Amino acid sequence: EIVLTQSPATLSLSPGERATLSCRASQSVSSYLAWYQQKPGQAPRLLIYDASNRATGIPARFSGSGSGTDFTLTISSLEPEDFAVYYCQQRSNWPSTFGQGTRLEIK
Amino acid sequence: QVQLVESGGGLVKPGGSLRLSCAASGFTFSDYYMSWIRQAPGKGLEWVSYISSSGSTIYYADSVKGRFTISRDNAKNSLYLQMNSLRAEDTAVYYCARDSPPDYWGQGTLVTVSS
């Protein structure tokens, strides 16, 4: 099973700042990596798929990069609605796995 | 618009069974792979099972293999998860999602396994 490790566990930033979230895979997942945002009481929302493609309706301030084992989700300028938990997920090998999440909180 | 609506969750005793359903609308259901993904209270996300568009390819997480069965009825635009021999650690919100990757999710249905 491929293990995804997200860092940091918690990120404290202010609106308008840039956020950089990391996801590292225990073995190569090629570009089969996605990022999700989850707010309390809601289902996850797909932000980025195949490492760098924004999903439908996702604002341009969200971007993804990386391949192989190291991936990054960047939020260029934080909006108040961006404070949430973010998960990465790989679908290179079954079982598909998720990272443990990064909590993005308001500083 | 794409809608996925889960049902069938509830409180069940250890060793019991439940059948979850997911009603899909707003897209051609038979064209898409589908998945069940769960989230224990206060925890992260765990993939449970995955089924191809025709139903010919199915995967299960090791934690549910032999106890859970995924199926679909393309004529009824529905996805199912039969859960047997339930354990306390199966307690979670269960989401159905359109794959791959999961771009649309239902609102989830809560399964609680407790005596």
Topology:
The complex is a heterodimer of chains A (107) and B (115).
Chain A: E1 4-7, E2 10-13, E3 19-25, E4 33-38, E5 45-49, E6 53-54, E7 62-67, E8 70-75, E9 85-90, E10 97-98, E11 102-106
Chain B: E1 3-7, E2 10-12, E3 18-25, E4 34-39, E5 45-51, E6 58-60, E7 68-73, E8 78-83, E9 92-98, E10 104-105, E11 109-113
Parallel strand pairs in B: 2-11
Antiparallel strand pairs in B: 1-3, 3-8, 4-5, 4-9, 5-6, 7-8, 9-10, 9-11
What is shown here, in short?
The complex is a heterodimer of chains A (107) and B (115). With 107 residues, chain A is mostly beta strands.
Regarding quaternary structure, what we see is: heterodimer
Distance between the termini of chain B: 40 Å
Task: Please report the distance between the alpha carbons of the first and last residues of chain A.
Answer: 35 Å
The biggest beta sheet of chain A is recorded as: 7 strands, mixed
Number of helical segments of chain A?
0
Spans of chain B of at least 5 consecutive residues whose pLDDT stays below 50 are none
Beta percentage of chain A is over 45%
What structural category characterises the helix and strand content of chain B? mainly beta
**SSE string of chain B, helix = H, strand = E?**
EEEEEEEEEEE
Radius of gyration of chain B: 13 Å
Based on secondary structure, the structural category of chain A is mainly beta
Helix content of chain B: under 10%
H-E string of chain A:
EEEEEEEEEEE
Number of strands of chain B: 11
- In one word, what is the shape of chain B? globular
Which term fits the overall shape of chain A?
Answer: globular
